[in-house]
Amino acid sequence: MPPAKKRPRAYDLSRTRTAVLAQFDRVRGAVGALTEDQLAGPSGLGEWTVRDLAAHLTTALERVSRQLELPEPAGAKPQLTLVEWPFSTADRADDIAGLALDLAAARPDLDALYEETAARFAELVPTDAGDRLVTTRAGTMRLGDFLVTRTVELVVHTDDLRRATGLDIAYDRQALAACTRLLADALADRAPGGSVEVRVPPFAVVQCIGGPKHTRGTPPNVVEMDPLTWIRLATGRTRWPEALEAAQVSASGERADLAPLLPLMG
After folding, report:
1. Which of 49, 106, 197, 245 could disulfide-link to 219, CB 3.0 to 4.6 Å?
2. CATH of residue 249
3. Is the Cβ–Cβ distance between 124 and 147 less than 8 Å?
4. One domain, residues 20 and 137
């Protein structure tokens, strides 16, 4: 019998909305301080410049705002669940890359773009009605779930921006927590089971991978790391062997190898 899947984690719409705006505000402050030379520098993401990355970050919010200006899509149930979302991103990477280049060219005034994006999101996104359906590139989702995915977009690209520019951009705790937990839950969904315990303190603990299930005491197979290391592994920014070599991951037990399951997002 296959392992039973756990009940999906619940997220509060109002808190997630606040976290998205808070993280966006931190990025906005950092981008506003960048010089033209810094904006023209490489982002570390293919051919994107830092300006392209900064412009792309605004789409994390704008996609939500645009959908809420449209009628709710038909259907009583979403086509895509929250834990399925990370796996839906790989096929869209090329399209996203092109759109970022177009946006950066069309909206060179990043201050105005960020101000407009934040204002529209704050006006259009409610603090309730999390069950309302919205359309995403991979299918319809609940609004509350789609907002959680925005924390992933913002936190991941905040990390990209930090590494590209050397800026010490702060992470909103709630945004970092939601991002970490969603990616941890996606791992457990990809490889259900109870033989390995993955710990990402202080935000997430999940069990995954089929095999003998741990019931009491210290699990025989344990993987532990900090949130940013986990996020970089889950999104392919860091590879499993590199993280082990740099002692960024603690892995004990013969089954404590996540390499075949990573990255979760393309």
Report:
1. 197
2. 3.30.1050.40
3. no
4. yes
Question: Which pLDDT tens digit goes with each residue over 1-51?
Answer: 455 556 789 999 999 999 999 999 999 999 999 999 999 999 999 999 999
Q: How many independent structural domains does the chain possess? A: 2
CA-to-CA distance for 24 and 157, rounded, in angstroms?
11
> What residue type is assigned to position 100 of the chain?
A
- Domain membership flag for residue 123: yes
DSSP string, the chain: -PPPPPPPPP--HHHHHHHHHHHHHHHHHHHHT--HHHHTSB-SSTT-BHHHHHHHHHHHHHHHHHHHTSPPPS-SS-SS-TTTGGGGSGGGHHHHHHHHHHHHHH---HHHHHHHHHHHHHHHS-SS-TT-EEEETTEEEEHHHHHHHHHHHHHHHHHHHHHHH-------HHHHHHHHHHHHHHHHHHS--SSEEEEETTTEEEEESSSSPP-SSS-SSEEEE-HHHHHHHHTTSS-HHHHHHTT-EEEESTT---GGG--S--
Q: Compute CA distances 212 → 125, 197, 201, 207, whole Å.
A: 45, 12, 24, 12
State the Cα–Cα distance between residues 207 and 193, nearest whole angstrom. Answer: 6
